[in-house]
Amino acid sequence: MRKPAKNKWSKGLYKKAIIDQRKFMWEPEYVALIAKWVGFKQGQTVVDVGCGLGYLGTLYWPHFGKQGKYCGMDISPKLIVQAKKLSQSWAKGGKTEFKVGDAYKLPYPDESADVVMCQTLLMHLDEPQKAVDEMYRILKPGGAVLCKEPDNLSWSLQHSLNSLPELPMKDELFFRKIEYIYAQGRANLRQGFLNAAPRVPLWLKAAGFSQIDAKIASQASLGVPPYETPRQKHEIAERKESICRGKEPRYKKQANDNFKKTFFAGGGTQSNYDKYLKLRQKYRPRKKLYEHQINDGSYYWFNARQLFAIKGSKPK
């Protein structure tokens, strides 16, 4: 079995992150739409690969849990223990089962699941096709797969409107170039794909799935002072926490070292790296302005979320 990721998702800030980031990720009305779209039915057996704390179980249990069975699997034993405990509060009227396992070798028999699902799993795998092939293996003929993955590269490359002064076009485009090189570096270092979502349909097709389709998340990311909606209050709180965390010397050094390693792994040159550092220093006052606007409640932002639900069917 592969070793769990170095990030300790079962405790501290990492655990808080995987809880907080999912609070407003999918609206209840949209979850119901996706459940119908995928074909969830009461009484089904559903496998959640890379289940973490069981988030997808909480979302879709109302659509299959009556006399149904939720099978949560994760490579982290600590997450499995916690997910099992948390499931007691939401898994009513059916059965749950939790296992430690590897996405490359799922601990389930052939053709044993009605639906297999995952979220932000494939983006972290160096061999996502192997995981998708395993999902195909354990699905019953006619069963469905649901993969929820982001396209973080497109998100970082998009031109979003906010309350900060716009950069000159040449500098804006240079920073976009850096983002692209960084994403390629992650892939070259076998750390996964920042642009996983557009690749998922191809992975599904290669595994043998048919009727492949996709939907995008229904919510944009925006903040309009004084941040009156629960989701905007949540997002501004996350931004404040990110600013505080980024100032921690240990975290800052780790982030800078990781960026440098990943940048050069993506084909970045020393001259571009030096230019990047100079531009960061040049726009340091802009960063200070961002922090000031966040803290005084005057920051405005609007950009599209690049999070997708992709489904496929196993032929009968």
Secondary structure layout plus pairing:
Layout: H1 12-20, H2 28-38, E1 45-49, H3 55-64, E2 69-74, H4 77-87, E3 95-100, E4 113-119, H5 128-138, E5 139-150, H6 152-157, E6 161-162, H7 169-188, H8 200-207, E7 210-216, E8 220-223, H9 230-246, H10 249-265, H11 270-282, H12 284-296, E9 301-304, E10 307-313
Parallel strand pairs: 1-2, 1-4, 2-3, 4-5
Antiparallel strand pairs: 5-10, 6-9, 7-10, 8-9
Structure, described:
The chain has 316 residues and is of the alpha/beta class. The chain folds into two domains: 12-150 and 196-221 and 307-313, Rossmann fold (3-Layer(aba) Sandwich); 155-183 and 225-299, no CATH class. The chain is 46% helix and 19% strand. The protein has helices spanning 12-20, 28-38, 55-64, 77-87, 128-138, 152-157, 169-188, 200-207, 230-246, 249-265, 270-282, 284-296, and strands at residues 45-49, 69-74, 95-100, 113-119, 139-150, 161-162, 210-216, 220-223, 301-304, 307-313. The strands form two sheets. The protein has a seven-stranded mixed β-sheet, sandwiched between helices. Helix 7 packs across helix 10 (249-265). The chain is globular, with a radius of gyration of 21 Å. The mean pLDDT is 92.
Keywords:
316 residues; alpha/beta; Rossmann fold; 2 domains; 7-stranded mixed sheet; 3-stranded antiparallel sheet; 12 helices; 10 strands; 46% helix; 19% strand; globular
Integer-rounded radius of gyration: 21 Å
Q: Please write the CATH class name of the largest domain.
A: Alpha Beta
Superfamily at the CATH H level of the largest domain?
Vaccinia Virus protein VP39
CATH fold category name of the largest domain? Rossmann fold
- General shape: globular
> What is the strand tally?
10
Number of domains: 2
The major beta sheet can be summarized as: 7 strands, mixed
Helical segment tally? 12
CATH architecture label name of the largest domain: 3-Layer(aba) Sandwich
Arrangement of strands in the largest sheet: 3-2-1-4-5-10-7
Q: Low-confidence parts lasting 5 or more residues at pLDDT below 50?
A: none
Residues in β-strands, percent? 15-25%
Summarize the amount of helix as a percent range.
40-55%
